[in-house]
Amino acid sequence: MDMRDTPIVAIDHVTKRFKAHVALDRVSLSLRKGELHAIVGENGAGKSTLMNILFGLQQPDEGGILIDGRQVIHRSPSDAIANGIGMVHQHFKLVPSFTVKENLCLAARPAVRAKLRTDRDVAAIAERYGMTLDPSALTGRLPLAIQQRVEILKALVNEAVVLILDEPTTILNPREAESLYGVLGHLTREGHAVVAVTHHLDEVLRYSDRVSVIRHGTLVGTALTKEMNRDALVQQIVGRSVAVDSRLPGRVDAVGEEELRLEGVSVPGTAFSSGLHAVDLTVRAGEVVGIAGVEGNGQRELFDILAGLRAPVTGRVWTRAMDARQRPIVNLVPEDRHTEGLILDLPVSINLLLDQLDGAAYSRFGVLRHGAIAMRARDLAKTYDVRTADIALPARSLSGGNQQKIVIARALSGAPRVLIVYQPTRGLDVAASEEVLARLRGAADDGLAVLLISSNLQEIMRMSDRIKVLYEGEFAGEIAGVDATADRLGQWMVGGRDADIASRMAS
Ligand SMILES: Nc1ncnc2c1ncn2[C@@H]1O[C@H](COP(=O)(O)OP(=O)(O)O)[C@@H](O)[C@H]1O
Ligand SMILES: [Mg+2]
User: Fold this and answer.
1) What is the pTM of this model?
2) Which atom of ligand 1 is found nearest the CA of 52?
3) What separation in Å is there between the alpha carbon of 52 and the centre of ligand 1?
């Protein structure tokens, strides 16, 4: 029998309620030795709750967990760890002022702490799993991708047989994600079971052995990945068919005059980014220009300059309409909707109109006109399909997809001519991503000039009329969207020096 047929863990008819809400309804799932088991489902489907129950962070109302056929009860994570289960959370729990070795010792059970006496011991364990880590580095100074490795090692030093990762690649760029799956491959080859929650179907199809789909708290099914395809997965996830492979082509007749132009724009780099070096770029009305690239190659600087957050050292930015101080006028969908896009504790209504509140329509003598705000906000929420029980609720209470719709509604209302969009679907589920992309495409067809900056190649290829690739602060190439292939773009993204980059990412 194949090693992968042996179940290590069985989740058995688990039901979990939060008051009247049924988060999980009799979900059963097995994890086999040596498999990478992907868990997919829309936001709120119950994926994290299921993982938390397995790790002892939450208790099931009904059903239970079997390990090697034996019923166990995980009252807390320490019970789960004792039973060979480790978890890497979406938000890391490292002590930033401690070194890698100190963090590992802190997490280690007393029995295994003795094995971590020297830096050599730590480096050796890391190497065994294909990781290169400096045991004496302060974890707070390490890039997120490397901090994640430390979290994985924390689970492994406690001799975890089953490793749970909840959305591990949301914070990673494509190269880092690839390298993470390299490490997970080491683990499964050694006989560990790895279970990973992810929204990235490409990763699921490429790296997982089996995939389970959860929808509204119930298990839709578990399948061998090689017997699944993208369309079938999407259909199971959303409960209906959505064509996500297809391009969202623009109307050729929609492309008009130049609306945005960058000429010779430069800003210096930092330790984490290459800066920009004499970049030229134009975007015309009605077209989506996609900027692809591995993060850290100048994307942040490009966005910041267009957003007016910093000035170029040389060169200039032009838009057809300039403001009174001769600055370009653009609307924005920023990268981080939580810190840049929304004020989470303020109502949905205020967030929808954030940039217009000082206008006469919504305030008088410094006092907000709540009636007028509510009326307009309700209108916008309807038009942009922002789903909330009440527009007076704080933006924090909405799902990620609906939060992003607020940001998009604000960016698109008021007839802008130029829109700068940065990672618009990061962290969103399939259905929400589709809505956001369709909305942007529709706005472009109506004559908006859209600059789409994204490290999601799929999204760039589906959306863009033209694609440019940023590499070390310069455009490495440009290609029409219809002619683009992942291989071609991928080569530009690594500057034609694949091997160097891969090794830099792995270290
Ligand atoms: N501690 C909690 N209290 C109340 N409701 C919760 C709690 N945790 C999760 N939920 C709800 O349970 C459902 C499933 O959540 P979750 O497991 O986080 O979904 P996913 O990880 O698939 O996005 C959601 O509707 C969520 O709002
Ligand atoms: Mg979750």
Assistant:
1) 0.60
2) 17
3) 11
